[in-house]
Amino acid sequence: MVGVRQFNEDRLLGDALELFWKKGFSATSMQELAAVTGVQRGSLYNAYGSKEALFLRAYLALHDRYLSRVRATLAAPDPRAALAAFFDFTIETIRQNGRGCLTTKTATDEAARDPKIRQALQTLLTGLETCLVERLESEQIHLRLPVGAAARLVVTHTRGLAVMERIHDDSARLKADAMTLVDLILKAPESPAP
Questions:
Q1: How many angstroms separate the CA atoms of 63 and 96, rounded?
Q2: Nearest Cα to 128, choosing from 67, 68, 81, 80?
Q3: Residue 143 DSSP SS3
Q4: Structurally, how many domains does the chain consist of?
Q5: How far is CA 56 from CA 5, 49, 50, 184, in A?
Q6: 127-139 pLDDT tens trace
Q7: Which of 49, 54, 56, 82 fits 76 for a cystine, CB–CB 3.0-4.6 Å?
Q8: Residue at 45 is within a domain
Q9: Would you say residue 11 lies in a domain?
Q10: Residue 7 lies in a domain
Q11: Which residue segment(s) compose the domain that 122 sits in?
């Protein structure tokens, strides 16, 4: 029937996202997207309008799943354990299938000059910062710096981890660097007075 999509959109977005993740936004062509999704290029243009719009749709679907998983990793009652779990998840995600971090890869690509793509990247990183602020605002957590600054520092460190993973390919080193940051952010709990 004319005007009705003849494809599974969730599957198409997942396949497109994997290709963008593997090759980067700029290096991915609509012809390659058509080949990997099994949907003709003309149908992709009819459904999404442009490569940018298809990327944004796929990226925003990833956004919600990613932040949901981040919140789950931060749920541990002990703040150090919560941050360790968060960094373990971050490093595992970066290293999965040798594909790196899609957000960092896109931010360092010429695609980040596009205002809509930059806004999507900012939205994800702001959401990540919000998750961290919510967790670090707990009364039981003693920080060496204000909550907002601590959250921004953690987010910034995740971008550095994504780059360092590409250079060193060493999980142990990344985890040690992450835990050094945790030690710098968290104060040791105060001992009760004798």
A1: 17
A2: 67
A3: strand
A4: 1
A5: 19, 11, 10, 36
A6: 999 999 999 997 6
A7: 82
A8: no
A9: no
A10: no
A11: 59-185
